[in-house]
Specification:
Layout lengths: L1 E2 L8 H5 L2 H13 L3 H4 L4 E6 L5 H16 L3 E6 L5 H14 L9 H12 L2 H7 L5 E5 L4 H10 L3 E6 L8 H14 L4 E4 L13 E3 L16 H10 L19 E3 L5 E2 L8 H4 L2 E5 L8 H16 L7 H8 L1 E7 L8 H15 L3 H6 E6 L4 H14 L2 E4 L8 H8 L4 E4 L2 H6 L7 E3 L5 H12 L2 H18 L2 H13 L3
The chain binds uridine-5'-diphosphate.
Length: about 475
């Protein structure tokens, strides 16, 4: 069990200095005024399984900074798990909550699950005091809640970031497997009402995830800074007179032969001066990378069949690029499936023609350096023509919200979480079936061919994020929920 130190970051006055956020912050301060008193003397403990990568690690630092500014104690603990059997099991649980995989969870699985969690108990008990509030995120540390409760008088919340709207035998099996732990928890928090299993309905609050508009991932970057970051990290090769310090890591990319290198084999400033379609996610089958690559290839191939090679649409598609970014596996230890999924994409990429290989970049991002990773993601999103989240299943896709905040037009699948974020044709496009390659290719082409619509979706996207998905709405919901626990 490790306590994570959160570095200083934006203060409330920094947010207020932004015209579009000024009213939001003032309203927030009014709305949360009662909570510091209600939570006095208690510490809120956030417990999850990783300090880097994924939505939870992304959101916690900014939330914690603001909550602390209000005078409320909040800390973050990460379980130590280094155990392959445990990671394999928790990945299976994760997939099963999304409805995929096999419905077989055994008592041996339970033994691994509880053994690894029990190893974290002693340390947890050194930190946590009677009266505190403990929030356990996602399935990995779920059994730990009950273990803590045997020793300390705490209130326990389980925060589930994933889910499936419909039941199937796999979801039933996984909820059965997890149900012995439910009784330990006072309350539950989900991202969407439709994800909540029937037996938890009465004890559950809905809090959608949110972004921090001023974090390194989301703060404003001017074009010159974007160029500097992309060049310093090795994503674009041209030598520009940039003023930024050398990045510790160059982003590695997949070479045509499937090896990893930091050399950009395309000498042009490709993703800046060409229309670019971008998806950044963990290498997870449920993120729909493979289908997106296939759709992009289909769009390109169909484009070459067009007879009018002088049309603007033909030229846009001809020059279009696809960038797929995800964690460099060198820095990720808790995701056994990630490398497998990346390898599948590499095989798909290796088999392509030279032209298509030049049009597609598979980037491995330096997740071990959160600031560099965040700035690279920020610069990539800001340089993208369209940001895609083609998830087969998605609890709530932070990447879509990040792109909308940056006024980038988004193309998302009809996965439940994404449908709650994006309004079709108002602030982006929803392509219902992420596995329908022809339909996805058509959506991409339509979006690439409609700059005016893209501008509108992008603009409306930012408004939607300000109104619904900033950390201020999220913190208010959390504090109200936690202070109601008696
Ligand atoms: N992310 C990142 N680098 C990567 C891949 C993902 O910084 O190589 C970030 C991404 O920008 C987002 C988060 O990880 O902030 C992923 O959250 P999301 O809700 O989209 O998916 P999850 O990983 O939680 O399923």
């Amino acid at each position: 069990m490790k306590k994570i130190i959160v570095k200083p970051g934006a203060k409330l006055d920094d947010y207020k200095a932004y015209g579009t956020l000024y009213n939001l912050v003032n309203q927030f301060l009014e709305d949360v005024a009662e909570f510091p008193d209600k939570l006095r003397g208690k510490t809120i403990w956030m417990i999850n399984s990783t300090a880097i990568g994924g939505g939870v690690a992304e959101m916690l630092p900014s939330q914690m900074r603001i909550i602390r500014t209000l005078g409320i104690n909040i800390e973050w603990l990460v379980i130590e798990a280094r155990d392959e059997a445990f990671f394999n099991l928790t990945k299976r649980i994760h997939n099963a909550i999304h409805g995929s995989g096999k419905p077989n969870f055994t008592e041996d699985d339970r033994e691994v699950y509880e053994r690894v969690n029990a190893r974290n108990l002693e340390k947890a008990l050194e930190y946590i005091e009677d009266g505190d509030l403990v929030v356990i995120h996602d399935p990995q540390p779920m059994p730990l809640g009950g273990m803590i409760r045997k020793h300390k008088k705490v209130k326990l919340v389980w925060r589930c970031h994933i889910g499936l709207e419909t039941e199937n035998e796999v979801t039933r099996a996984v909820w059965d497997f997890l149900s012995p732990y439910f009784a330990d928890y006072d309350r539950f928090v989900y991202s969407l009402a439709s994800y909540v299993p029937e037996i938890l309905k009465d004890k559950t609050a809905i809090i959608p995830p949110a972004i921090d508009p001023l974090s390194h991932k989301n703060r404003m970057l001017w074009m010159s800074k974007c160029l500097g970051i992309l060049q310093q990290s090795g994503i674009i090769r041209e030598q520009l007179p940039v003023l930024y310090p050398n990045y510790k890591h160059k982003v590695r990319r997949v070479m045509p032969d499937g090896s990893f290198d930091t050399v950009n084999h395309d000498s042009e400033l490709d993703i800046i001066f060409h229309p670019t379609v971008l998806q950044i996610s963990r290498w997870d089958r449920l993120k729909g990378f493979k289908e997106l690559m296939e759709a992009f290839i289909l769009m390109k191939r169909d484009n070459e069949k067009k007879t009018d090679k002088s049309s603007l649409v033909y030229r846009r598609i001809r020059h279009c690029r696809l960038t797929l970014g995800g964690p460099d596996p060198a820095f990720v230890s808790d995701d056994p499936e990630g490398m497998e999924v990346l390898n599948e994409l590499i095989e798909q990429y290796k088999a392509l023609s030279v032209d298509l290989q030049r049009a597609i970049a598979l980037l491995l991002l330096p997740l071990d350096n959160p600031k560099e990773n965040a700035l690279i993601v920020n610069a990539l999103q800001r340089s993208a023509t369209i940001v895609v989240q083609n998830s087969i299943q998605e609890g709530f896709g932070l990447t879509a919200t990040e792109a909308m905040w940056k006024q980038r037009p988004v193309l998302v699948s009809g996965a439940a979480g994404l449908r709650a974020q994006v309004q079709h044709d108002i602030n982006g496009r929803i392509n219902p079936d992420p596995t329908n390659i022809a339909q996805l290719a058509k959506c991409l082409e339509e979006m690439l061919s409609n700059p005016k619509e893209r501008d509108k979706w992008g603009f409306n996207g930012q408004v939607r994020v300000i109104n619904n998905f900033t950390l201020f709405s999220q913190i208010k919901a959390w504090l109200s929920h936690l202070s109601s626990l008696e």
